[in-house]
Amino acid sequence: MKDLKNWLEEKQLKRTAEFLKERGFEVFLVKDKEEAKNVVLKLIPENATVGIGGSITIREIGVIEELEKRGNKVIHHWKEGLTPEEDFEIRRQELLSDVFLSSVNALTFSGELVNMEGIGNRVAAQIFGPKKVIIVVGKNKLVVNLETAIWRIKNIVAPLNAKRLKLELPCVEEGYCIDCNHPKKICRITTILEAPPARTPFYVVLVNEELGF
Fold first, then answer.
1. What is the reported pTM?
2. What is the mean pLDDT of residues 51-79?
């Protein structure tokens, strides 16, 4: 049964990769996070400044440590002890990096990249600012269409992220979205990339492995 499931997931990833290419994205289809890390490292020049969006996926593939080891300047705001002012300034610096590295919350079968967040720095950097954008996406983020993408984000991604951030939001209490208007609400901005931004080289690394939320 596992072989059948693997066959179907691989089939879906390959078809989605084809749709992404038709939309104009540069696509790499890889078998696991180790291969994903190697692809990302090849796409990033050794003298490039790299901004990292808030992404568990990127941290799971272990690329940050490799970038720092080889001498790249890495800018990311997931650091302990930052003041609100320091955190804000680092997020701004990520927008002006040579390469922005992140993930998405959902990817439709037809190749639409869907994100939802509270502050907006991650989606802003995917749209304009960095000279190159690289997105790494695990197979668990693949969904049928935009409707299921939004459902996935609100009922899986948002509660898990809110719990991770120790936010006392209704979705943490209930385990699913109730479309709240809480002051700390993290579902504020939704973006759908139907094609790469016109002046930004955009790479999507599809991984046949579950990564992130």
1. 0.95
2. 96
